[in-house]
Amino acid sequence: MDLKTTYLGLKLKNPIVPSASPLSRNLESMKRLEDAGAAAIVMYSLFEEQVEHEAAELDHYLAYGTHSYQEALSYFPTPEEYNLGPDQYLEFLHQAKQSLGIPVIGSINGISSGGWIDYARKMEQAGADAIELNIYYIPTDPRLASQEVEDRYVSVLHAVKRAVKIPVAVKLSPYFSSFAHVAVRLDEAGANGLVLFNRFYQPDIDLEELEVKPNVILGTSDATRLPLRWIAILHGMVKTSLAATSGIHSAEDVIKMIMVGADVTMMCSALLKHGPGHITSVLEGVNKWMVEHEYLSVEQMKGSMSQASVVDPSAFERAQYMKALNRFR
Amino acid sequence: MSDRDSVSTKKHEMVTIDGNEAAAYVAHKTNEVIAIYPITPSSNMGEWADEWSALGRTNIWGTVPLVIEMQSEGGASGAVHGALQTGALSTTFTASQGLLLMIPNMFKIAGELTPTVFHVSARTVASHALSIFGDHSDVMAVRSTGWAMMASNSVQEVMDLALIAQAATLEARVPFLHFFDGFRSSHEVMKIAQLDDGEIRQMIDDDLVRQHRARALSPEHPVLRGSAQNPDVFFQARETVNPFYLACPGIVEKTMQKFARVTGREYKLFQYLGSPDAERVIVMMGSGAEAAHETVEHLVQKGEKVGLLKVRLFRPFSVDHFVKALPKTVKSIAVLDRTKEPGAGGEPLYKDVLAGTCEAMGSGTLPMKTLPRVIGGRYGLSSKEFTPAMVKAVFDELNKEKPKNHFTVGINDDVTNTSLQYDPEFSIEPSDGVRSVFFGLGADGTVGANKNSIKIIGEDTDFFAQGYFVYDSKKSGATTVSHLRFGPRPIHSTYLIDKANFVACHQWFFLERFDVLKSAVPGGTFLLNSIYGPDEVWDKLPLHIQKGIIEKKLKFYVIDGYKVAQETGMGARVNTIMQTCFFAISGVLPRDQAIDAIKNSIKKTYGKKGEAVVKKNFAAVDATLEDLFEVKVPEKATSRFIMPPAVPPEAPEFVQTVTAKIIAGKGDEIPVSKMPKDGTFPTGTTQWEKRNIALEIPVWEPDICIQCNKCVMVCPHASIRVKVYDPALLSKAPPTFKSIDYRGTEYKGTKYSLQVAPEDCTGCELCVEVCPAKSKTQVKVKAINMKPQPPIREQERENYEFFLGLPDIDRRTVKIDTVKGSQFLQPLFEYSGACSACGETPYVKLMSQLFGDRALIANATGCSSIYGGNLPTVPWACDSNGRGPAWSNSLFEDNAEFGLGMRLTIDKLAELARELVQRLAEQIGQDLAKGLLEANQSDEAGIYEQRERVKVLKQKLETMTSPEATNLLSIADNLVKRSVWIVGGDGWAYDIGYGGLDHVLAIGRNVNILVLDTEVYSNTGGQMSKATFRSAIAKFAAAGKPTQKKDLALMALTYGNAYVAKVAMGANDAQTVRAFLEAEAFDGPSLIIAYSHCIAHGIDMARGMTNQRLAVETGYFPLFRYNPMLTKEGKNPFKLDSKAPKQPLRDFTSLETRFNMLEKTYPDRAKELSALAAEDVKSRWRLYELFAGGGDGAQGKTDSSPSS
Description:
A: 329 residues, alpha/beta, B: alpha/beta, Rossmann fold, globular
């Protein structure tokens, strides 16, 4: 069975790519993902804000209380070098490239245009095969118009594309008033791929402590519906690669996404839940299904149920369920 | 004229460093094994050595010296002795008491003719008081050990003589003590020429190194060294070393000559400078000689026939070299000693000079025809200033027909009239130098910025540069004063600046407390950090500042540094901003060059911490110049703000006459007659020192409050208090005083008030953090919330005064074994100078509340002895009956024994009192005697009743005249139960004092040992102790601690006869209270190990209690109580008070820089050590579970575990 696919111009042996997650934080689990059949790996995100925060935090705590009291003018040794944020990440990316045979995609979440460009360049130098821009941004400023939000995405992409030669994908949230328009703008701005969709962290509150608390909920297959719709709509509408992420758990999820037009499917929650070996069983499931249903290749299947390919394209556009519409022309 | 003026700035690499770094630099280059132990002011030498070795820096033989921390200075000297005996080049660094602990080994090392150099930043030995500052009392105490003693007077000399000593000892085989003045030389930052490896190689003769190795103990050619000898031969054997001592001065002289050839810098055993035909000469050594140096130069220029003889090699004292160094014309000599030997015929150097001149006279080698008059005097004890004015006073004294002998200079001795008068206005500061004084806060980064400025000027220009920094003795809200000199010539001014041409005040509130312009010279410049702009600032200034500016015609500049800092993300740190202002207006460098230099320096300093930090500082530099303005100074001073007195008029007389002066920075003016003779001070004096250091203070919301008293419990400064009282008392309450009905059943019908001491609070926020009560309508509002202090200072001061006037609770009515109840008790430890949000003081305060009215406290040297006993004021306080803790500090190493001695006294005198009560039963009345002897004092009521009986007893005894009655009267107070508390940190308990602590536990006497476990030597800057957790970075563990934390509690409980508890207030405050009560109630030794978060952990101090909680929840610091009393009841004495760890250790360690830093410096090692640390946690928990009764069932057995 031919599971090969092409994503961001990269030839991949199959359409399963682990997305940015804690599993890409150490070489051992990355190796296990590769062994289990992953076709490429998206590294965990390098958060510019976190890098800056770490540096500021280190500076703060190393300086705090110093030169105040004559017996204790400082509280820590003063090393000549600190292995901080981007250095750690880049070194790790470099090591990953050295020890893995599959493509490694770097992921950036920036806060300044300088940060996006700088980190993208450094990732390219460290050997990344491609870059995913993880534009993780909640616009809370009521004076910020939606047009300006979209412009930011485009300008970040422009800046990074100018800075690097490797392919660049954009990971997006679905929260745009006209998502198709945004997708096309990014496509025109040179994006090599769109990754749909970013699941934002959603806080919870603790009723006993009366505190807002992080409470990460792992996604389920239900979450595939949203990317499924939009990939179906965008397939053929944009030139970029399309990656489906959110809720990909089973072989059926993978097959559905490919059928609506995804070039790759990205897994996170399922791997955190079942471990890297889950990729192997999903691949087996995909294989089996394709055999049973007499499909020859992923490329054959890709987009076969996109909006443009189905009998009733409006099914992907309906906002409400409509009962038993009779066919009449 | 000057030995050092020949320093070429072109030939050598010039560096700007302090004396400790200079000494450590040579020591690390020329040694193989370095044993270290922290003690101020020498700790930094060990820190440098450890850091350099951790970084892989090699010595001149290309190998990285092995650096090892020991448990005490005694241990360090023992390890060095062993290393030397087996052929390594070995050294150590120390000072003061540390050096005294090395004495036994020093005798041995010298007796065995072993070459080594110990580097000592000379510090005062504690007598009537501890002092961390510099004098020669420590080095003079080791004169008899047989070590050569070499004195360095400046930072350059520290580097040079360290090498000369190292080279000479190898040839002489006499060990060398190389000393320099603590703080003045050890901490003075100076631009000096650095020795390079080539120069050091030339000075060290490898043949001599190999000879040292050849003499080493080896099983290949075995010998015995260290025999025991008897009266028949010991004496003769002791005299065998004489040739080595006779040869030593010549070897040193030869080495100095070689050094001059190698480096161009010339030194002599006794270095004379001054008029070639001088008649009056001062003989001295140490940093004071630098001040004397420049004064002599000044006086000689004026035509005076004076000179100075600097003693460099004090031991062996070569009379021959000494007398030859003196001009033949000398008629009188003043010998200045920086030490005091009470009862001696004179101080050591004086007596050597006296004996030397007499001996030379007798042997005919004295160059003068007649014996010069020799007088001796003391100066500079404990870093007392020694200035040109004092030098001149000494020369003036020598001019007198009958000069004072055994004089003092620098103080006013109005008791035995030893002091010389001097003219404080006499100054010889040159006209072409820049002298700058900066007033800052520890927290604003002023000192760091100034050290940076010195480096910039030292390294970017041909100017010479010197920096010296003065700190007050508080650990929170500390004031710093930086003294910076720059100029075209070498700087010899080893004293503070009192003629400044640039004064900067980095905090507005200093204007209201100090005369910051006192040292400003006419026509100088004044820079003020002010929230008021150039147009409005004048009217806000206090009167004395306005007058100072007008009278001295100062150029006056303002900058709103806070605003610039806020806008550029610098927070409270105005360092870079004020530094930029200094360069912009002082003219030390052209402005553009200065800005470039600052930016380069920022890159160097912060570059390794990330681009973001550099950018932030760059932004601050760029924004500064736009906000710097010169102020147009009016002709008249119009301010109505007069600087308030340091203490209020109602303070007691001693506080008015002594304490207030010290607070105001005028302690130097206090005469001898006003000082206590034996180091005894009144307690309860912090209440008079209102520091107002909090920008925000907690404000109580009675309607939200649930009256749990947790905020009171955690307050490190006893600045939040609660009382319950009769509602009728509110009739006289100030209008804004808050109260609410008490919610419990025990004080029904009373009112409850929670009150903040607005001027004593440090604004740490621990109280807000622990407050569990949240508003029902807006959860961010708690029952206490931080609000700006200035607008409510006056009203809250009035409220606090009223609150203090409300009656204290009757101790007999308090539910003492609860958090809530215990906090109604008056704290007898208040408003200390501890760090804001200190993790130790809440425990100390709790102890004072529970037992303070009958407590004797032995306090080991360390943080707790500093915030507990450093002048000017004393935080230990009295209750309304005049009772309170009696406190003393003996040493660092002997605290358990010191406390045991207190217990033994109480036991003995109580026994004697009981015996006398029995004997006098008839006279005092059988009932009273029976009551006294059979009193049950197990609770507050019983203690109260016994006190009443003792009161009656004393009244009766006062009417009796028999010797037995009089004796009983003098000891009757011992019939009331007393509580001995032995308090100290982990450095004491785990390391240096462990032997004594172990012994005291084993002996079984009733003492209570409170170990404030911060897991480092906090007071000296965070050095590793055996309490440090594996994988934490600390000083002396720059690459992370490789071994696991010692389980002191576990070791103690193996005795079976001691009460042992591990507590962490932030995790379980109820268990903490219970443990304190059980420990005190236990009639035997008790050990409480109290986890204390600390500034040395690199944490958000305001969240210290959260860190404590996580330390417990992750199993990092499990809680338990081991009570031997339970064994008697047939129960398991071991109770686990915390639950099995459910969260990974990382949840705790990731909050603390001490753990995070290792990942950023040695990532691979961090992984390895943190995995081992996690295993430590698991294995210890398994062990504790076994003690508690095994496995999962353990929790079931902790039936009465209190929880918070």
